[in-house]
Amino acid sequence: MSETALKEKALLIHKRLCAVYGCPIPYFQDLDPLSELVSSLLSHRTKNADSGRAFRALREHYPDWQALIDAQTEEVEGLIKGVRWPELKAPRIQAILRAVKATHGSLTLNFLEGVGVDEARNWLEAIPGVGPKTSAAVLSFSTLRMPALPVDSHHHRVAQRLGLIGPKVDVGPSHAILRAQLPSDWDAQKIYDNHEILMLHGQKVCFFRKPACHRCTLADICPSAFKVN
């Protein structure tokens, strides 16, 4: 399929799913960008309810993120034990927060408001442990409200089944491909909507196993419809 045809298909998918899930979709939280960074790191391969509890535990236990940096790693791990791989996430979060402070000179990401999306993502992804999904989530979900497109596992699965990305394109590289299929002048709300509706479709219809193709509004344009068990 040509690049033009893919862009047209991406817009059609967006229109149909918006009609199903109701765009514009309200933002689910209103965190400052540094707090969103911590929240996003906790959420990797973890249910939202579990990562949310872990984030609240950190906020309640430490007066600020500097206190988390200074804490014993074992203590941090105990507070986030409900997430997947807490033994990896605890030292990683501390190391990333240290890197933010060392690189910028202070423990904040508010300065990213004054730069473009690509520059902001490059700055974030230069920190070891911060990948495309995390950088996009920080810019999109936080109070920065920037037009960056996150791609989670549900979003990625739906995009692959619809043929927007190839079967061998991993989550990381899919970010740039899927963003390029959307209009360059879309604002943060529309980009956020696109992520949310594809994610919701993966959660509610296009399941990993036995997708509900019989009630999918995209079945007629999906090359995988009724072919996945």
TrEMBL record:
Belongs to the Nth/MutY family. Transmembrane segments: none annotated. The keyword Iron applies. This is Fe-S cluster assembly protein HesB. Residues 42-204 form the HhH-GPD domain. It comes from the Bacteria. InterPro entries: DNA_glycosylase, Endouclease-III_FeS-bd_BS, HhH-GPD_domain, HhH_base_excis_C. Keywords: 4Fe-4S, DNA damage, DNA repair, Glycosidase, Hydrolase, Iron, Iron-sulfur, Metal-binding. SMART domains: ENDO3c. Its cofactor is [4Fe-4S] cluster. PROSITE patterns: ENDONUCLEASE_III_1. It holds the Pfam family HhH-GPD.
